[in-house]
## 1
Amino acid sequence: MQTGHGFYCIVITYNNNMDTSKNIQRDGSNLSPWQTGVSALPDNKISNVVGIYDCLIIGGGITGLTAALQLQQAGKQTILVEAKSIGFGTTGGTSAHINTFADTTYTEAESAFGEEGAQLFADAILEGFSMIKNNIDTYRIDCDYQTKPGYLYAEDDEQVKQLEDIYNGALKVKVAVAYSEGVPTPVAFKKALRFDGQAQFHPIAYLHGLTKAYVQSGGIISENIRIQEIKQEDGVHTAANIRARNVIYATHLPPNINLFNFECAAYRSYVLAVELTDDKYPEALIYDCQEPYHYVRTQVIDGQPLLLVGGEDHKTGHGDPEEAFATLEKYVRQCYNVSSVKYRWSSQYYIPVDGLPYIGQLPLAADGIYCATGYNGNGMMLGSIAGKILSDIVQGKESKYADLFSPARIKPVDGFMEFVKENTDVAYHFIADRFNFKDAETLNEVKPGMGKLIEVDGKKIAAYRDDYGTVHTLSPVCTHAGCIVSWNGEERSWDCPCHGARYDIDGNVLTGPATRNLAKL
Ligand SMILES: Cc1cc2nc3c(=O)[nH]c(=O)nc-3n(C[C@H](O)[C@H](O)[C@H](O)COP(=O)(O)OP(=O)(O)OC[C@H]3O[C@@H](n4cnc5c(N)ncnc54)[C@H](O)[C@@H]3O)c2cc1C
């Protein structure tokens, strides 16, 4: 299909007839069921692009595509560039629960931002939720959208107290909630809440629906372009030879050094999709109140129901990913009758220091450069509303959420303590990890499948030996802020414990905020 501008043609096919018994690693990440069997958009070089775009959108996840479609539909000429492929980022690794409540509870939002702030936050969550449904209806997106009840349950007295806070907070902001006698879970619980009208979908099918609508309305997409820097001259921004009056970083975290390196902490969360022996798949979205919490739902893939269970989150580059999967699998097997694990994957999210996302003008950057980050585990709704808010700002329209989510807002005192804690942690890793290298006589000490930080002849090396015996040697110094990366044996990647940048075994950037690859040695 040809766009109005003649640059781009898309063919999206779903080929889920493949063997899903193993989700083979691609580029340092395990594939989610959403990412398997969906063909990528064709590699596209932007040629004969002239002139100045109204907006350059960087990042092809739910935030970027929502913003791009909104702007294009409003008559703005936009271009969206993506470092890898559409859905490569967390939108491809999400568990895609769509909720009317959030990880930052409405009670917490009220204590940090007042009653009005909590109400606006709830409005944003609900509006983001509705936007997804509206897009699905408007653009007839076939993405397995289903409405289901959501349950949140407490297993001890402390969690019961949390549940009561969540209940009261939700009622105050007029989000429908009720206590529930039953929960479709085999786990014993003390008290539970029921939120009716929650939803779930296939996130990549949804993204591809947005992509199609965007391209049909004249939008341009180019994959495999990682933006490293933006230059400004006379109110025009230039990145990778693309010129635009406005730029939106829809990169989940804006790249390079910026304020969010201090205000958002990068976490990994782990998900298993399992087949059950007894067919007791819950028709609900279910969450416990553990820290970190488990999230559960059912998804039919290729006609086969699978139980999705996620959790075991930890800061990127800190915990042990192999252990996280092992613990998660043990938990799932304890609670359910599992016949086999069909998929296992993990992905990254960002916790904002004061609990709310940052959406708006990028602090300390030239005017007209915008960003959205800090969604915690609620990026389906918050990414959607962020796309709308940023599209409104670019069009010069007022947004009622602009002040609440402004990246320039002053942090409440509660957040300040978190701020200090996170940044002390970064400082610790910056120094201490420099002493973590093991002396090695030769690279022979690195066995196949193993990644290790070693020092050979006084040289610090991040070394990985692949299954064929080839050793991949890299500088261990993260190109973002100079911390030392650590080995992630589960995903075969080098992960930075300071700000969450990740690299594949050849040093290529997988996840920002880094934009430059690790140096090869
Ligand atoms: C395991 C897990 C489960 C989750 N479950 C839920 C859930 O059930 N419900 C919910 O609401 N939220 C959930 N979340 C959160 C949600 O998935 C994310 O908040 C959301 O997908 C973020 O979308 P995004 O478009 O902002 O970022 P992404 O989807 O990460 O997209 C950003 C894109 O930008 C690209 N990019 C980055 N840097 C550059 C650059 N310099 N140049 C060009 N491109 C670049 C990346 O390659 C990427 O494709 C979950 C998160 C995790 C980790």
## 2
Amino acid sequence: MPLDEAVLSEIADAAHLIKESRYVIALTGAGVSVESGIRPFRGPGGLWTERGEPPMDGYRRFEADPKGYWEERLSPARRSMFGDGFEAAKPNPGHYAFTELEAMGVLKSLVTQNIDNLHNEAGSTRVLEIHGNRHKLRCIRCGKRFPASVFDLSTLPPRCPECGGVVKDDIVMFGEPIPRDVLEACQIEAGRSDCIIVAGTSAVVYPAASLPLIVKEKGGVIIEVNPHESELSGICDVSIRASSGEALPALVEEIKRLA
Ligand SMILES: [Zn+2]
């Protein structure tokens, strides 16, 4: 679908703001992966909207019974919590646009709420995954991350080869603190930034929600890419009302044209 006049005008405005900025970062959410066939968790058509939210005390239950957590995790029933579509999902033009912005030296880092690994697959290298990565496991004592293949899972729960701590999925559960290393890196990046592109997320959940505010409070600008108005729209300098897969490649072209 060709982009309409209003969207093209928003893209032009956004490109100018980006060109005038010295430290551009991005924040992405479920909307960026929808075009890769991954359903959002919340909102219309959301997986959890349909099936109900996972237990809010997930992390407390894990801490109480790590072995039980692992037995459940390895059972076929677990898949339903995250839905289907992950295995077949490939990065879409929105992911590749961010990769290109990084390669152009425009985008300094990318914070994502997505666990699907698609930004990495697309070739982005400065990715901060606030909610973890579905391909990794993490030690809850020392925080070190490992590819899942490191563990043979014959004894549950698996233990960290570095410190002996209990290992769980890197994916952050309800009630689990955001890993300190990622949280601090996000805050440092937001503190440096004078322009944040917020794509495919209404950014209402902490800590993602705080990042645009940190940028804005220092006089920076917020560019939103979201087909729908969001809670963040009121404080955005530009809102591009289109999907990220359509809008971001056009934005990259416009930035190249200005350069
Ligand atoms: Zn450890």
## 3
Amino acid sequence: MALDRLGSSLTNAIKKLFKTGVVDEAAVKELVKDIQRALLQSDVNVQLVLEISKRIEERALNEKVPPGISRREHVIKVVYEELTRFVGEKPVPLKVDPGKKKTIMLVGIQGSGKTTHAAKLARYFQKRGLKPGLIAADTFRPGAYAQLLQLGNRINITVFGEEKAKDPVKVVREGLKQFADKDLIIVDTAGRHKEEKELIKEMKDLEKSIHPDEVIMVIDGTIGQQALIQAKSFHEATPIGAIIVTKLDGSSRGGGALSAVAATGAPIKFIGTGEKIEDIEAFIPSRFIGRLLGMGDLETLLEKVHEAEVNVPQKKAKEILSGKFTLTDMYEQFSAVKNMGPFSKVMKMLPGMSYDVPDEMLNSAEGRLDKWRVIIQSMTPTERENPKLLNSSRAKRIAHGSGTTEKDVKELVKQYFMMRKMLKMFKRKKKLPFGLGGKGGMGMAGMPGNFK
Ligand SMILES: Nc1nc2c(ncn2[C@@H]2O[C@H](COP(=O)(O)OP(=O)(O)OP(=O)(O)O)[C@@H](O)[C@H]2O)c(=O)[nH]1
Ligand SMILES: [Mg+2]
């Protein structure tokens, strides 16, 4: 199944979840089944599919849903995280430093794209101001050196090799000597021998004698299940440090690559996306998975999740706690809370909040949240910064502007002063509430300001 088709079947599974009335155990189980089907159809190894889906199911059913997001959103977040996890959570860049003379060796079976990607990599780093050199160590296939030489010439990169060479180790040794002034030396190796055993032996010999800084396996993204077997046999010969998945343009299967990652434990560092020398991208796991899942809807969701988790900058939190708490701050808090679902539930989950705030206060605050936001919106900036100004005539004007009553406005102002008093109390206790002062500052949801 094509990568984009895997994407669309995963997207459909997720869309279905969005439409489900209640996200209960049955809905989660159905989603997991849909995901399994999508992954299997796109060539991800069975064992791996089972592992992933088991983890998704366990987390989706058992994990406590953090405040601010619904169970539905949490389930999707889990799916995203588990898929991302197994292609690596963060991008792992190929580090090349000027003057360090890093040697990388590309391995992989014939036709996977080693020679093409040797040139692509050289170009990639050349464009970033580094000095790469190419070594043609495929002495088996006739014309291999000529192919690399031609590619190198096109991009103005020196290629070391010998037309009639027989011994790749000798070629590389000589090449390394010649390339003493390079920042990155890329060794292109053979992908075929009379027997696979010989190929594997050659990789071992090369690795032992030239000690590359990194062995990178080049995997054809269209080969599906075979990727796993290939990755395993190469990994046994020479520990694979990184993976390049090629041919992810057109109708490629993504699944095989995922299997290879699992087999070697090595991160994907680049993907090849076409036949041209420029067609190479540094691999970004979240983007890859995003593509698989049809990121459209998901992006907004993840943003929302992220926002709910966003920490108030320490400085801001300290200001507020020292009494510099304005109606603008209060408004921000209302808006933050509004995005986070049931108010009282959110508040109850905050450390320190559950016993500090009486239930009726939370409930009444929740009911009036929208009204209060409109009222604050109808104030002038000066009034928001200095609520003491809010006398009766101003309150009347604001009530009129917001379609509320003067009583509503006064009540909001009263709540505001109560809130501020409470904040000052926290300050006097000299104990920073809600983890404030810890590593990340305090969570937005953790602000006492949330309930006012
Ligand atoms: N569409 C597409 N084609 C690619 C990509 N990478 C390589 N190819 C094509 O795949 C074919 C094989 O690429 P090579 O780089 O020669 O593969 P190799 O691993 O060096 O093969 P051997 O030297 O025989 O072991 C060539 O026709 C390339 O143009 C890619 O990312 N996308
Ligand atoms: Mg080649």
## 4
Amino acid sequence: MIKGVKGAPDILPEESGKWQALEAVARDVLDRYGYGEIRTPAFEHTELFVRGIGEGTDIVEKEMYTFEDRGGESLTLRPEATASLMRAYMEHNLGAKNSLVKFYLIGPMFRHERPQSGRFRQFHQIDAEAVGSPGPAVDAEVVALLHHLLDAWGLQGISLHLNSIGDPNCRPAYRQAFVDYAEAHRSGLCPDCHVRLTKNPLRILDCKVQACQQIVAGAPTIAAYLCAPCRDHFATVRRLLDGLKIGHTVNERLVRGLDYYTRTTFEFLNPALGSQNAVAGGGRYDGLVEEIGGPPTPAIGFAIGEERILASLAAGQVRQEAPSYTGVYVATAGAEAFPAAFDLVQTLRRYGLRAAVDLEGRSLKGQLRQANKDRCRYSVILGSDELARGEATLKDMVSGEQRAVPLGEVVDRLTRLPEREFV
Ligand SMILES: [Zn+2]
Ligand SMILES: [Zn+2]
């Protein structure tokens, strides 16, 4: 038997309802904030990700699904959404109609990671980006939107970490101070960090190796290096969030390694998830569009890991609602009643009801058992005697009550019946 690829799990019908509910809430909240959905292809030219995510990052160096297609082009399955979204923003000149463009993408991302708890090779993200404005109000609204979303999903115990990582004006001095410090502690760093030190030193801040984390704990922090405009920007973001009563902690270790990131960075953490505890995060990346060949374009966004959100909800932090009974099961007594039942089911579905009929020739008892299993609110029983009398039996599956109804009134009754009441 051929099995699925490790780290790329199936989402089965009994689980997909959770995903649909999660995404329905996201679409609703994103719509309220003026975000429109965009759908980009699952693959792009490899160069887009190499430039948009950055050489020297783990994603580009170790994790991309890159392949040559039959035309000899190098393509890559998207490992994240932002580069694709910015590519689409430029290609379709989305900024021409609105100075501030807000859009989101929901879909799978692909990374060749070592499968472990909380990490998948195909995983799903909700990605939102606000493009075109450098102002701190956009940063505050983006964080507030994410906060609203997590709240709408019923997540509890989530904390917000916030930082400013400066801009091309003030970051080089910080970077130099950090490099000087790291050089002085070089012997204590892990082999990966030795490479980072020459290629992308600020990535050392993200290293999970304990020895490196201890060294990082004593490193100079960005706050002292921020220039006045960056300090003002950060202060305004924080003041606006305070005004919305969105509590946050300034975390000076929250530094993104890449040069195109600027100013605000943020992460929402769920301590209950253990080592992979960031459920969502993002930041401003005013330099990215230029990096992939466009004009200077300020932008900020975030990505939410859907698997992490569902894991947080499964961790018992949210109340489960009792499954409810809905819809209609049309049961038949005798094969000759089947064509009428088949027709009735189609009619009920056209009227907007969830409706089922037995397609396997089971006994009436077997059909009613299935109706219970499917949690149908009502059953309609059609038998040849009843059909001859122009009647059907309507059964309330919760109370067990049943009564004869003229066949011509069945659809009308069922479409008008409140879910809880019968007769
Ligand atoms: Zn390290
Ligand atoms: Zn600055």
